[in-house]
Amino acid sequence: MKEFNINQSVRKNILELQPYISFRDHNEFENPVLMDANESPFGNFNRYPDSTQRKVKEKLASIKNISVDHIALGNGSDELIDLIIKIFCEPKKDSIMRMNPSFAMYDLYASINENKVVKLGLNKNFEIIKEDFLNLSQEERLKIFFLCSPNNPTGNSIDDLEFFIRNFSGIIVVDEAYIEFSGRTSSIELLDKYPNLIVLQTFSKAWGMAGARVGVAYASKEIIAFINTVKAPFNINSLSSDLILKALDNPEQLSQNVHSILSEKSWLQDCFKTIRCIKKVYPSEANFFLVEFENVEEVYDKLLEKEVLTSKRSPHIPDCIRINVGTREENEQLITVLQNIES
Ligand SMILES: *Cc1c(COP(=O)(O)O)cnc(C)c1O
Residue 177 C-alpha to ligand 1 middle, in angstroms? Predict the structure, then answer.
């Protein structure tokens, strides 16, 4: 395998960029008169947020036992996916790879940047076939592999992650949006070993803060510096960073959330066993299930009729609907509709 070299992997125009420096955020002042940013002197949210996001990063750094310069924040992990593609992929020339099926946003941002998407088909248990991975990885100008674990929409975690990281010569992004539900250890602990690794996490799922739009990238200092250079300087707004700081001060809330969702998940799983139109419930390490039905169109329409919104994966994954765990009341509504379907 060829040695990974960050400066040969990054697009040349990005390599030459100078980061936008908000003077105020990169210097210490005691009691400054702020006349530098054309803000209003009046109002509660009159000031621009900290472009370096120092407080949130320092808190995350102490929780994850990593230094601040290994952390970048995005307007959701969506923004980080977009930025990572822009940093490494030359439009019209380079390509990305993702598992198939997997999260739709990788394709969206690759298309916007005019990069081809190589699809790595999974086996019937939605695992990666190592031989196929090794073959497809040989493709010229393949720059990034998005490995989603637990995977969306299938729900399973990928085993032996280090095999894929070791055997990929470009950037490998491990998307851990659902990791808190899986109980597995994060790939953050592999960062010291692999300079081509980026780990994505988010406040949108287990933390219950999708509306705040905050995602986190963990990677080498060099990669983080590039992300900080290309991001919009004020991508995390003051309201969101205040909310995140509060949430990080109260980690029991996260474990409580996860605990409740996992217990509702097992309640749902038991109910599913009694529903006749269900053919199969795929094993899940996330807060959702991929469920296969006898009569998927009818089921989906009946649910919709009762305003129970689910995510139809058929025909792409034949006969399947992805359903996430709700409150007990919501789960009961789902089960009631399913019980009333003849099969
Ligand atoms: C939900 C999800 C995300 C999170 O996206 P945000 O922009 O942080 O809300 C990231 N990756 C995957 C696979 C997801 O399912």
Answer: 6
